[in-house]
Amino acid sequence: MTDASKTNESSNTNNKYEEIISNLPQDNGWKPFGKLYNYQGFWYAPSLLQNVISAQQSFTPQPKDFILCSSPKSGTAWLKALTFSIVSRNQVDDSTNPLLKKLPHEIVPFMEIELAQNSSNRNLDIPFVATHIPYTSMPKSIIDSDCKIIYISRDPKDVLISHWIFDIKVSGIGLESFPLEEALEQYCKGVYPFGPYWDHVLGFWKASLEFPEKVLFVKYEDLKTDGPFHVTRMAKFMGHPFSVEEKQQGVPEKIVNMCSFENLSSLEVNKNGKYNLPDLPTVENKSFFRKGKAGDWKNHLTNEKAEKLDQIMKEKFSGSGLV
Ligand code: A3P
């Protein structure tokens, strides 16, 4: 194919997406991202939405891939670090682990970012793909495959604060342009990138109940309180269980320590490195490591506001078994 015909094909594809997107419901209340579009029940910035549709149409996983899923700011980088360390534990040691030199996002690419236009654009030795795409919009190639899915969820109040601060920083719009009250209002309506949170979480929660061999549901807060137990659970689910000797040698604990917020955030790469994404602004790696705590929302939300959010989640999760 000549360069000219490639350019034509790509501009036809872009036009096709633009046409689909221009007919979708819009909202511009999540200010750091400008206009968002509602596609299949979830909100997206237009450039990412093109990639989501493209992934739905053409992404093909490798048969043994693990698909790491999350709503943004729920602990995606942490999940990447932990699962990568579990699977690669016999190939790397404490001094050669790539996590020492690379941001977890550089090791495990996002389906709708790095791989959207070209799913072969990846290191096939690393059997991981990450995504923020909701379960109900996941490419059929993944749902129909034998690939295992791991989802990380987090207290929505912490997700809101983390999302709000990250988006303000990355977009450079300034706190005064998007006060927390406004962000909370949008969040309660579900109108922010990959929102609504409750539908995102419920999609994976229900799938984990229906297909427990395929979908594992993990909570950020559980990883915080009992990391080794949940790392052991993940390893078993992934088909890489720890042997008795490994447990005696404390391998699950070593993985938890290696991937801890304190350790990862103190590495040179994560203090001073930069993450360059196609079609997105360059982000400083340290932006992905802010506080890493459960309950930081208490420093930002009044009890009244927290209760409002809790009440919404309680209603949405009611009857699902999810607390
Ligand atoms: P805070 O902003 O509350 O600190 P994501 O990776 O999905 O973008 O999520 C980012 C959130 O996960 C940030 O939360 C970040 O600090 C936290 N985080 C990153 N690495 C972590 C780790 N190793 N352990 C716990 N939390 C981590």
Automatic annotation (TrEMBL):
GO molecular function, one term: sulfotransferase activity
Superkingdom assignment: Eukaryota
EC number of this enzyme: 2.8.2.-
UniProt KW keywords: Transferase
Gene3D superfamilies documented for this protein: P-loop containing nucleotide triphosphate hydrolases
Domain Sulfotransferase span(s) in chain numbering: 63-321
Pfam families: Sulfotransfer_1
Family from the record: Belongs to the sulfotransferase 1 family.
Protein name per its UniProtKB record: Sulfotransferase
Taxonomic lineage of the native organism: Eukaryota, Viridiplantae, Streptophyta, Embryophyta, Tracheophyta
